[in-house]
Design a protein that fits this description.
- The complex is a heterotrimer of chains A (about 300), B (about 400) and C (about 325).
- Chain A has about 300 residues and is of the alpha/beta class.
- Helices cover about 45% and strands about 20% of the residues of chain A.
- In chain A, the strands form two sheets. In chain A, strands 6-7-8-3-9-10 form a six-stranded mixed β-sheet, with helices on both faces. A four-stranded antiparallel β-sheet of chain A has the order 2-1-4-5, with helices on one face.
- In chain A, β9 and β10 form a beta hairpin.
- In chain C, about 75% of the residues lie in helices and about 0% in strands.
- Chain C is built from 13 helices and two strands, in the order αααααβααααβαααα.
- Chain C has a two-stranded antiparallel sheet.
- The longest helix of chain C has about 30 residues.
- Classes of the chains: A alpha/beta (about 300), B alpha/beta (about 400), C mainly alpha (about 325).
- Chains in contact: A-B, A-C, B-C.
């Protein structure tokens, strides 16, 4: 059986730094797999390799047995990988419903010309898109906020909206980048249930998470990155007792590890929250110029 | 990445070709260097006019007129007998005063340059004239009608077109003679348009007319709907517009649309067939003043008109082409005489002699008798009035201001 | 009173054209944060394409009659139905060709520079602008070319006529159409998503190159329609005709809030109106100051709303 996702010797180097270093990894269909590690370990970079933002300098990444290397992000999205972002990147000026509809678009066919002339087929399709989008909003529990502008949504709702948007693309594999960041315990509880329901839909879940409570509770298998290298893998139970992992987390015991991470996450969340409150335009702008530069260049 | 580089290279190459295309091309032929082995001497005639920007329509007419003159002269027995050929070098001043000075300096760097036909816009001719005068190069403007050009006391500065201080007043007198007593005066804020409008204004009031008000607009402006509504409400007998045909034609059209029946009058820059083509039926009854007697009446002009149309494959002859043609001939005729006498026009003495010889010009050109007064202005002070009748300029009458 | 109504009519007509052009600036800015200085030239090229299409369909000395399609031509010029069909063809053909030119220019002159510093595409745009002007100048003519006087003009009271009504109605229909396109359709949402966050849009499966190409199609297509209006309204087209309307339309886009479509529409109509009313109400002899009044309004608006009338206020973000 082919794995849904498989990385072979995946490596990416920025100048002298190997952000992801010879990583071998796989995910099977229907699994919930977590990727953990200290800050700067290369977790988000790995997501970026998987979704086509970066190309590995060495090694290969396969989705459904076919390499994703060199594919443009929108093509990979179409093939069935979808994701959310560590720092929320919704289309701030669009409503919640519209955000989800955008995600839905790649599963529709009517071209730009049909759209311009508002042909009946296009109108029907647009209605279908809306019905689907409303269903996904309901799935994440945001129906009541459908017509709110995304920027005005509460933080937790924005996180869930990102998940709805990602689900709307009908992914086979959904990559969640710190979905619990900034959530209170009650919201985290809801999130855990939500992730379970996503898996029940048959979608494979791959998540980066700092909140060990979430990870240990829902992940079936865990990979641990440190300085770009894979230092451990296994079930939550195995990971909690893995000496290398404990070493990576400053030699603390597993219990302390969890506690420390919880605290650290809270501080980070506070910072991020403050950032998120600032309007998104400038941020999106910076992102467009900075982080995204690499893959934009390849489109030229 | 490869494609990206390729695309940039191609694009730059494309632009480069396009820009080279702008400047390349149609100089009059002939060799560089003063005298060739066969004993033929080649002199350079500069043509300075707006070619790519600004008053391009008139600039192209000037270029073509001068080019035809040079080609005609090079083919003539006169030139062949004297062993002289002329070569055209063009300078594009883009209707911009600073560019005009640069063009002038570039042209005079050619030591075979003996004279320049140009510039067109008064705002270009005035600063450029200082450069030519300093270099002892003859300059004959075919289109700058602002009186100040020849009042600077510079030697070697001439023009073949009548000045605005003649055309403006002539227009006023023509209008008053027709019983049109209430005028509104507009100009395009250009040296030419403003000058001619001022002279019209003064003469109109001095001779018993009333100017209701004076408006200003801009050369590139095309929307006059609001202004036309305002003017129509004042119900004038005539509207005088100092500017070029490309500005006045849409104005006239919009006046007509606004319900006005007052005729529009303008100066020589409006006297083009294009004015009628653009304005269509709206411009019926509009007036224009122009220098000299009607071109149709002069046999030399008939040949010129035919040759011009054939040479450039055009349906009509732009007004300034004929002035440029005469200007180029004035320089070349004088050059032939000086060459005969001194053997080289490019020496300091030869240049002085050329200026003196141009001053003495007296020949039948296509715009009338070509001769200059002590300032360098043409003595051709006949101003004619034309009117749009059945989609063509029809001659109405002439007025000789030299006689007054 | 009659004069006031006439001036409003003048202002709305002019404003319709400004709005159509302004949309091109604002669409591109919204998505690429780039001021497409070549847009004024797309308007100019559109006017020329419209002119030639119209001549091809209507002028006996041109095109169709020579191809043996004289009767079709007579149908076009000889009946009301023919005229309507002919103008529809002219607008569609012109819009499509100009739109394709816009897409081509984006592909060749802007896309390779998409990740270059901001200044680079700006310079490229100025280059395209000079190139297009010179291309028309060299390959067509330096003189203004009269626009065929085919549209039947019926004069109505208050300075109204059939052409002004046609221009205003068509402009409004197109503006509403674009508004629907952007707010209701798939491609519209993709455009808005791309303008919000290009990277996230791509990861949601949006091909941003297609979206940007669509933007560069729509803007010039609308500009071309404005170009045809300009030709019909002012009687002639010339290679440098884009300059003034281009600056005015850009001003309109800024006035309404650059990047905001409804803002561009509002700004266009407002600017047309301000110009007409300024001429109408400034004392005789001072109507040359209409642009001063227009820019004064712009400055005042920008002092109180730096992002433009409907734009997001920049100040709030800090």
């Amino acid at each position: 059986m082919t794995h849904v996702m498989e990385a072979k010797n995946a490596t990416i180097q920025f100048g002298g730094l190997k952000a992801v270093d010879s990583v071998d990894m796989y995910i099977d269909e229907g699994e919930i797999v977590a990727l953990i590690g200290p800050n700067g370990a290369g977790k988000t970079t790995f997501f970026n390799l998987l979704t086509g933002i970066y190309e590995p300098t060495d090694g290969d990444v396969f989705f459904d047995g076919v390499s994703v290397v060199g594919e443009k992000p929108h093509v990979i999205a179409k093939r069935g990988i979808s994701r959310t972002f560590q720092n929320i990147r919704l289309f701030g000026a669009l409503t919640a419903l519209e955000n989800v509809m955008v995600g839905r678009h790649l599963r529709t066919s009517a071209g730009a010309l049909a759209a311009m002339f508002r042909l009946p087929a296009q109108r029907r399709e647009e209605q279908m898109i809306q019905i689907d989008a409303e269903r996904w909003l309901e799935f994440v529990g945001l129906s009541h906020l459908a017509n709110e502008v995304a920027n005005n949504l509460p933080y937790g709702a924005q996180r869930r909206l990102e998940i709805a948007r990602a689900l709307a693309t009908d992914p086979k594999l959904i990559c969640l980048d710190e979905p619990a960041a900034g959530m209170n315990p009650h919201e985290t509880e809801e999130l855990n249930k939500l992730i379970g329901r996503i898996r029940d839909l048959g979608v494979t879940v791959f998540l980066i998470e700092h909140d060990m409570k979430v990870v240990m509770e829902i992940a079936e298998r865990i990979y641990v990155l440190d300085f770009g290298k894979l230092i451990a893998q296994g079930t939550p139970d195995e990971i909690q007792h893995d000496p290398a992992v404990i070493e990576a987390y400053l030699g603390l015991g597993a219990e302390a590890l969890m506690a420390r991470n919880l605290d650290e996450t809270k501080t980070e969340q506070a910072l991020e929250f403050a950032e998120e409150q600032a309007p998104l335009m400038t941020e999106a702008d910076e992102a467009a110029e900075g982080e995204w530069e690499v893959f934009d260049g390849e489109n030229a | 990445m490869k494609f990206k580089t390729l695309a940039i290279v191609l694009f730059v190459a494309f632009l480069a070709i396009a820009l080279v295309g702008c400047n390349g091309g149609d100089a009059g032929g002939g060799d560089d260097g003063t005298t060739t082995a066969t004993g033929v001497t080649t002199y350079t005639i500069g043509v300075a006019a707006p070619i790519t920007q600004g008053s391009v329509a008139q600039g192209m007419d000037i270029k073509r007129g001068a080019q035809l003159a040079i080609e005609t002269m090079n083919e003539s027995e006169e030139a062949k007998a004297a062993g002289v050929q002329f070569k055209m070098v063009e300078g594009d001043d883009m209707s911009d005063d600073k560019t005009a000075v640069t063009v002038a300096n570039t042209l005079i760097s050619d030591r075979n340059l003996i004279g320049v036909v140009g510039h067109y816009n008064s705002r270009c001719s005035i600063p450029a004239s200082a450069v030519y005068s300093e270099a002892n190069v003859v300059m004959i403007s075919p289109g700058s009608t602002n009186p100040d050009l020849t009042l600077q006391g510079l030697s070697g500065v001439f023009r073949t077109c009548a000045t605005d201080d003649l055309q403006g007043p002539a227009g006023a007198l023509f209008a008053l003679d027709m019983g049109l007593k209430k005028a509104i005066v507009i100009d395009d804020s250009d040296t030419y348009g403003e000058g001619i409008a001022d002279f019209f204004y003064e003469a109109f009031e001095d001779n018993g007319g009333t100017v209701l008000f004076r408006e200003k607009t801009q050369v590139a402006e095309r929307d006059f709907t609001a202004l036309a509504t305002k003017i129509t409400a004042e119900n004038p007998d005539i509207v005088f517009f100092g500017g070029g045909f490309e500005t006045i034609a849409p104005f006239s059209k919009q006046m007509h649309d606004a319900g006005s029946s007052a005729p529009i009058m303008g100066g020589d820059a409006m006297a083009e067939q294009d004015y009628i083509d653009i304005g269509g039926s709206s411009v019926e009854g509009d007036y224009v003043t122009n220098v000299g007697a009607p071109v149709e009446g002069l046999p030399a002009a008939q040949d010129f008109v035919a040759a011009y149309k054939a040479r450039f494959n055009l349906d009509s002859v732009g007004n300034f082409a004929s002035y440029a043609y005469d200007a180029a001939f004035a320089i070349m005729k004088a050059a032939l005489i000086v060459h005969e006498e001194t053997g080289d026009v490019t020496t300091p003495a030869g240049r002085d002699a050329l200026i003196a010889e141009v001053e003495k010009s007296n020949f039948e050109g296509v715009t009338g008798t070509i001769s200059f007064n002590e300032n360098g202005d043409t003595n051709n002070k006949v101003i004619s009035l034309y009117k749009v009748v059945d989609q063509a300029w029809e001659f109405v009458e002439s007025m000789d201001l030299g006689a007054k | 009173m009659g004069i006031l109504i006439q001036q409003i009519v003048n202002g709305v007509t002019l404003g319709g054209m400004y709005a159509l052009i302004a949309l091109g600036y604002t669409l591109v800015y919204g998505i690429l944060l780039m001021i497409n200085f070549a847009h004024a030239e797309m308007f100019m090229v559109g006017a020329y394409i419209g002119l030639f299409t119209l001549k091809f369909l209507s002028d006996p000395a041109w095109g169709m009659a020579r191809l043996g399609l004289g009767p079709v031509q007579e149908f076009f010029t000889g009946s009301v139905l023919g005229l309507i069909i002919m103008f529809i063809i002219v607008f569609i053909v012109t819009g499509a060709l100009t739109g394709l030119l816009g897409v081509l220019i984006e592909r060749v002159a802007y896309r390779p520079l998409r990740n270059a510093p901001r200044l680079a595409p700006l310079i490229s745009a100025i280059g395209v602008s000079i190139f297009l002007q010179n291309a028309v100048l060299l390959w067509i003519d330096s003189k203004p070319i009269p626009f065929p006087d085919i549209f039947p003009i019926v004069t109505l009271p208050y300075g109204l006529n059939s052409l002004k009504i046609f221009i205003v109605v068509t402009s409004i229909v197109l503006l509403l159409g674009l508004d629907t396109l952007v707010s209701r359709t798939k491609i519209g949402k993709a455009m808005r998503a791309t303008s919000q966050d290009r990277g996230a849009a791509q990861l949601m499966g949006i091909n941003i190159n297609s979206v940007i190409a669509a933007t560069f199609f729509i803007g010039p297509a609308l500009g071309a329609v404005a170009g045809i209006f300009y030709g019909m309204y002012y009687g002639a087209v010339i290679f440098n005709m884009g300059f003034f309307p281009g600056i005015k339309a850009f001003t309109a886009a800024v006035l309404g809030g650059i990047g905001n479509l409804r803002g561009a529409m509002l700004g266009g109509f407002m600017l047309g109106m301000i110009e007409a009313l300024a001429v109408g109400f400034l004392p005789a002899g001072y109507s040359g100051y209409k642009d001063v009044v227009a820019f004064l309004v712009l400055i005042i608006v920008l002092i109180f709303r730096p992002g433009g009338l409907l734009g997001e206020s920049v100040v709030e973000k800090v």
